[in-house]
Design goal:
241 residues, alpha+beta, two-stranded antiparallel sheet, globular
Length: 241
């Protein structure tokens, strides 16, 4: 059973890559979010089903996302704080600019062309959640990290762990602490410091944050809107380049 659980972790990814400097400010403060109708979890494979440019309910024109370069957008917070863990969200600067900058000529641009660009408030709020999740994970504050994860992924995580006798603490925080390789701490800190959000693509109840990480790697993180608060729907972003 432990082998099955570890395979699950590898499948969803426990550690991501990270990257570049930025200019659009997103303040990572715990608190409420004013979100759009986007909701539910999603995964990278969902984007393969299509989604034409500008067909999102909250979309917008390419390059006019809330994080477009030059716009100073102060976020209203992550929608879920670190609770009693003592986690203090940090401010990050995101360059924005929309997904067009990430398109690869002749490549699979299903995520980059998925739905439409989010507006300013949605972009900022989703970016804050991503940053808070990466920061909490990098600090080893597992309880705080779990507050930024979607109910679906936490539920699957805990259900599988409960069946693995080798894991005593089956809480989300306990699982993350037990199974995160200590050797990955350096790369997690680097990713948290380098993550630069450039786009939030939304169509219906599916959405993706596109960001650059370590060494300029472009990644997509599926997101879920739960009761007006953004949550990450995976433990790591999926590389697009």
């Amino acid at each position: 059973m432990l082998a099955v659980f570890v395979a699950f972790l590898l499948a969803i990814g426990l550690v991501a890559c990270g990257s570049s400097d930025s200019s659009n400010s997103t303040t990572a403060e715990a608190g409420g979010q004013g979100q759009s109708s986007s909701g539910g979890g999603s995964n990278l494979g969902d984007a393969k089903s299509g989604g034409n440019e500008g067909k999102s309910g909250s979309g917008g024109e390419e390059g006019k996302s809330g994080g477009s370069a030059g716009d100073e957008g102060q976020s209203g917070g992550s929608g879920s704080g670190g609770g009693s863990s003592g986690f203090v969200p940090r401010q990050h600067n995101d360059s924005g600019g929309g997904s067009k900058q990430f398109k690869v000529k002749g490549g699979d641009n299903s995520v980059q062309e998925f739905g439409g660009e989010a507006d300013t408030s949605e972009f900022d709020a989703a970016a804050v959640t991503l940053h808070n999740f990466l920061d909490a994970r990098a600090e080893g504050d597992w309880a705080a990290a779990c507050t930024y994860m979607s109910k679906a992924i936490v539920g699957s995580f805990e259900k599988l762990a409960a069946q693995a006798k080798e894991i005593d603490d089956t809480s989300c925080a306990g699982i993350l602490e037990k199974l995160t390789n200590p050797a990955a701490k350096r790369s997690m800190k680097a990713e948290a410091a380098k993550a630069d959000v450039g786009s939030l693509r939304i169509e219906g109840d599916r959405s993706f944050v596109i960001y650059t990480g370590i060494d300029g790697t472009v990644l997509a993180m599926p997101m879920a809107n739960e009761d007006g608060a953004w949550k990450v729907s995976s433990l790591a972003g999926t590389p697009l380049n």
